Amino acid sequence: MQRLDLDRVECLIFDLDGTLVDSEILSQQAYCDTVPDLDWDVHHLMTHFRGHQFSRIVHALEEHVGRKLPEDYEALYRARVAELFETQLKAYPHVTEAILGIKLPKCIASSGPLKKMRHSLGLTGLAQYFEPHLFSAYEISSWKPDPDLFLHAAKAMGFEPQACLVIEDSAVGIQAAQAADMQFLLHCPKGHDLPTGYDGPVLEDYSDFPLSVSQ
């Protein structure tokens, strides 16, 4: 099992969905709501597509239902996600307190578009702690598990990859951190399933975040 070497950490790179904000269930629910003939439930989508690139998920949906989705499907999907976020999105417990206790430079690197990132951060009151250090896979056209997004974020923040700690919730995100030669910490709230085969460090609750001075 990998252990964190906190003395080496100079910069924190957070994922957003499923890591800082409890959005994954809502994002997967939006697929169910916008593809009426889809017989996969939210649990199946969470298990198989958590953290994956939108276009890859759409391709899998089309193969499963046996038809092409409408040309404007992304707009329909994004609109449904926004509706669900407006009424149900929350930050994970103790996230704000943990962030306030972090004295190291920090940023967010997400597979989602910047518009969605800013919407999520605005709704949950977290924008003030991370702007303008937001990095989207859409800016560089590279998605996890490729390491490019994390490497891009580290370079923009002015740090070597080995000095960065990635906080992630998905298997593809952890794979991207490993490929970038960065340390990683998996956010997995108590009662949730770990990714298959994962034996690295786990954060169950932000009240135990290891790099907050309140700890």
From TrEMBL:
Protein name: Haloacid dehalogenase
Highest taxon of source: Bacteria
Pfam families according to UniProt: Hydrolase
UniProt-listed InterPro entries: Beta-PGM-like, HAD-like_sf, HAD-SF_hydro_IA, HAD_sf, PGP-like_dom2
Organism taxonomic ancestry: Bacteria, Pseudomonadati, Pseudomonadota, Alphaproteobacteria, Hyphomicrobiales
SUPFAM superfamilies for this protein: HAD-like
Cofactor: Mg(2+)
NCBIfam families (UniProt xref): HAD-SF-IA-v3 (TIGR01509)
Keywords assigned by UniProt, alphabetized: Magnesium, Metal-binding
Transmembrane segments annotated in the record for this chain: none
Family indicated by similarity: Belongs to the HAD-like hydrolase superfamily. CbbY/CbbZ/Gph/YieH family.
UniProt-recorded Gene Ontology molecular function terms: catalytic activity; metal ion binding
